[in-house]
Amino acid sequence: MGSDATTTIGTKLTEEAGRDAIHVAVMAVRAMRTVRPGQHIGIVEPGWASPAVQNLIGIADPFLSGTIETGEWFWMLLYPRTITTLRHVWEHPDVPSEEQPSTPTPAPSVDPGIDARSASWGWMDAYAAGLGHTSTQVIEYATRYLDEGDNLCGDISLDGTDIPDGFWDHYQNVTGRQVANEDRPSWFSCSC
pTM for the complete prediction? Predict the structure, then answer.
């Protein structure tokens, strides 16, 4: 008997291995869009995960029964042998350390071959899909919201929708329109 589960988890076994126990690095994240248990996912920006990212680093909790809806918290199990330390407080090259102060980032880290505008389009696509809309619809709604305030009764209803950290930075990258910090609402509302 005998493969060590820590070295073989995530691969097919070549022999009967008996029993073992392993540590799995997990982190609590929120769904940027609907996610299925066991689906491969990655970080969109700190605290938010989606299957619609280039760098997949783990799976959604495979033990859940039912889909994880946009905005719901769940465990992400990181891929085996990818963390750099394990003390029940772990580190991973693609996840900011918990000891770092939590500050909004202008855009998620991306492959150097992808420019900031393309990365922001990808972020907007994932965010909008989680709301059941296209990124173009959400960007148009945000633009109208900035121009007209909460007097919107548009063809898409985002009334009461929280706007996650980073949204306005991605909006600026995509549209080229600068939005001052004091002009950045944290949710959409409609006064109709």
Answer: 0.48
